[in-house]
Design brief:
The protein is of the alpha/beta class. About 50% of the residues lie in helices and about 10% in strands. Helix 5 packs parallel to helix 6. The protein is elongated and about 110 Å long.
């Protein structure tokens, strides 16, 4: 007589019931319902994911024994997860109580949602002197997670330097090489929320057991766990479990481990077991490569002078660098404007605040006079020689860009020129920048030199 799914599961339950306590049976097995039996594969439905995880951790041998006795050596067990009503609706709005099938205990390895961003890859993580060591270590980890001396790997650096991108890139590379490898990316906030929930539901033990299924754990912005005593305690236990079982741990932080505030000293000491890799602000060449990669993705072209200007003014933050490019593209498309130095300046002013107090008109005059190989006093003269006039006009233009001096004040620094002459000079340079690429390049280089005086 051919078995139906109800009979098959009831026979399995009879076997299991003899092997475990009544309380455990009522808690973990009574709520399970059989769904179907097809070609030796028995599908059951469990109340929630935590139930599945507990079955996997606690009763795998009992399940294997029951399936073997009832369905034979080729028998298999699969399950479907009952979801909360608000998560069970399909796109049409109908309830679907049997979505999200997972593998069953002891038959297939449990699959865990990684939460990785698929857009963060090594292929679009530009290498430079600022991140070469960290990137190389990340690739080594991706090839042999948990088997290198880089465990744990602590990636630290300032805001916008690519910590999260690198962490995701490692995870995505691991997943691509080994789809069965369980990876979990999580933030401190999510980690703490799960712990709070587990405490309320008295399921801390289940919480720990769930994380035992993870092969690589990526915890972003570890500094935000500081001061959260219970979260730190549980993470300390998980850290030990991971490390003892050669499972990979990747952490990111905004500072060195020793500088983390309100952090468990036991954890800090363990962070030093592996690799502590810092990310520095990208140098000019790396910034340029990042811009060109961004423009390639967007399928747009910027004039070289604009790229140079961006690189020189956005020096410490990759996120801002990409944000400036995105904003320039948006402004150009929405306003039907040409991508040029003027547009770049407008956008960059929203990202960067120049410390004008450190730039003086005399600094600017020195830079310009040096470029044109002129005596600085000639910029104050009434000479109408073309080269001197152009140098004087550019100096006034830069004074307007980099200082808060009024037109009258600027004029007083150039031999007492009146405000209308200063305004005419500024507008002349602006007009030339739109039509003369060579002059645009000269002015960009002069701006770089003036900016250099900000830092020296």
């Amino acid at each position: 007589m051919k078995l139906d799914h109800i009979t098959a599961w009831n026979e399995c339950l009879s076997i299991i019931k003899n092997d475990i306590s009544e309380k455990s049976f009522n808690t973990w097995f009574s709520p399970i319902k059989s769904v179907k039996l097809d070609n030796g594969v028995l599908t059951i439905q469990v109340p929630n994911k935590m139930s599945y995880e507990w079955l996997e951790a606690k009763y795998i041998m009992e399940l294997k024994k029951a399936i073997l006795n009832v369905l034979g050596s080729k028998g298999r067990l699969e399950y479907k997860l009952s979801l909360d009503p608000d998560r069970m609706r399909t796109k049409s709005g109908k309830l679907d109580k049997t979505i999200n099938p997972f593998a069953i205990p002891g038959i297939k390895k449990v699959k865990i949602a990684s939460n990785l961003n698929p857009n963060y890859r090594f292929s679009n993580y530009i290498q430079g002197d600022c991140n070469k060591m960290a990137r190389s270590a990340g690739i080594a980890i991706a090839n042999k997670p948990g088997e290198t001396s880089f465990n744990p790997m602590i990636i630290y650096g300032g805001v916008g330097l690519g910590k999260t991108h690198l962490a995701h890139a490692i995870g995505n590379e691991i997943k691509e090489k080994n789809p069965q490898h369980n990876i979990l990316y999580i933030t401190p906030e999510e980690f703490t929320n799960k712990i709070v929930k587990a405490i309320k539901e008295d399921t801390i033990e289940e919480f720990i057991k769930f994380h035992r299924h993870i092969d690589t754990l990526i915890l972003d912005d570890i500094q935000f766990l500081g001061g959260r005593k219970k979260s730190l305690e549980i993470f300390f236990n998980l850290f030990n479990i991971f490390h003892q079982n050669n499972k990979q741990i990747i952490l990111t932080s905004d500072s060195k481990p020793k500088d983390l505030k309100d952090m468990d000293e036991r954890l800090v000491s363990r962070f030093k077991w592996g690799l502590i890799a810092d990310l520095q602000a990208p140098e000019f060449e790396t910034r340029m490569a990042i811009i060109e990669e961004k423009l390639k993705d967007e399928e747009v072209v910027f004039p070289q002078a604009v790229k140079d200007y961006i690189c020189f003014n956005i020096t410490g933050n990759i996120r801002e660098l990409e944000g400036v490019c995105t904003s320039i593209i948006a402004h150009a498309n929405l306003s039907d404007r040409e991508v040029n130095i003027e547009l770049a300046k407008e956008v960059i002013q929203k990202f960067v605040s120049f410390n004008n107090k450190k730039v003086s008109i005399e600094n600017i005059k020195t830079v310009v006079a040096s470029h044109y190989r002129l005596d600085i006093e000639l910029l104050n003269s009434k000479s109408r020689k073309r080269e001197i006039v152009l140098a004087r006009q550019i100096s006034m233009y830069l004074a307007r860009e980099f200082t808060k001096h009024s037109l009258e004040s600027i004029g007083s620094h150039f031999g007492g020129k009146d405000h209308s002459t200063v305004m005419y000079s500024i507008n002349t340079v602006k007009d030339l920048l739109h039509h003369d690429d060579r002059l645009s390049e000269v002015v960009t280089n002069l701006e770089k030199e003036v900016q250099f005086t900000l830092k020296n």
